[in-house]
Amino acid sequence: MNPASRIIESGPLPRRRSIPVDVGGVTVGGAAPIVVQSMTNTDTADIAATVAQVAALAEAGSELVRITVDRAESAAAVPKIRDALAARGVHVPLVGDFHYIGHKLLADHPACAEALAKYRINPGNVGFKAKRDTQFASIIEMAARHDKPVRIGVNWGSLDQDLLTSLMDENSRSDTPISAAAVLREAMVVSGISSADRAVELGLPANRILISAKVSDVQELIAVYRDLAARCDYALHLGLTEAGMGSKGIVASSAALGILLQEGIGDTIRISLTPEPGGDRTLEVKVAQELLQTMGFRAFLPVVSACPGCGRTTSTVFQELAQDIQSYIGERMPQWKQAYPGVESMKVAVMGCIVNGPGESKHADIGISLPGTGETPAAPVFIDGEKSVTLRGAGIAAEFKTIVEDYVVKRYGTRHAAE
Asked: What are the residues whose beta carbons fall under 8 Å from the beta carbon of 293, sequence distance 6 or more?
């Protein structure tokens, strides 16, 4: 066999073409870019706190923000939150998260029903026994009346127990029973798809429906979304629920969502991180953006590549410069984004020694290779693959920032002018 014939092309599988849904002006599904969303953890009835957190999440890049609507005070606050955000120039679509009494809250607070861009309901607790169908129908009819999309959000922690019991009983009578875990996954898939289909029967168009199926186990999440993707064409929201804190939550969410996105599954994502006490809620937005950008699906911020360091880089100069450049880019991005479209795709390299430094710098749009231990104290700068200048002395960081700024203006300013 020709060795070249074994080479596999890089890139994800073709994107699953779901039915696109308009959520307050943001398109989810179809050929639209994968959407980043997040959720507040404030008491929605605390208008000031909720407005502040929604604004922070939106500024960080969340394109949809979900808020809890759990009681009358929360529902009454929703239109005030929307108006306060608009007064601050923040127009991110708000998604209402309803459990147990969503039908009543939407009926009693029509201003809330109108102010929200989307409703999220859980078929496992939208109603119980005889009330389930009527209360589900009430919410769907309200959504249709206000022309709002609905996310059918199944969660294995609050699954429809009647459905699960029925499927378990059916499985026990089968001549070829499957595992309990497989039955649980089937219950989640059936709950999501059957609820979505029922919503269509009740008059809500398929292009106003999304489905999610949240679990906290990585392999189970992958399996359930593969089943969902194969059996319906509704838009899908991805997220590993209760992912956890810190690096554990980041790694688990990235592993699960990364595999699904690579397989072409997923139209919108949330990284459900448990924040540290007093921690920054916007971290989940940044992680979602970094996941999409790392995998090549979207670009949000110029990427700074930096070597991990080794015995050749006992100096901390390259680490400090990499951190400095990353911070500088973050500070400049609000202005750059407005003035220089496309700058978010820029790649910068800050390398620590001669081994990989020049090569990595050539692969970036603009890169610098700092001297390693024992090397000549010189730092060549590469622009678009070609060596441009060599920096020396104590002012390397400031000089390199100036070079980066000039590069942004010349490359992306020219593009802006041409357009």
From this structure: 299, 300, 301, 303
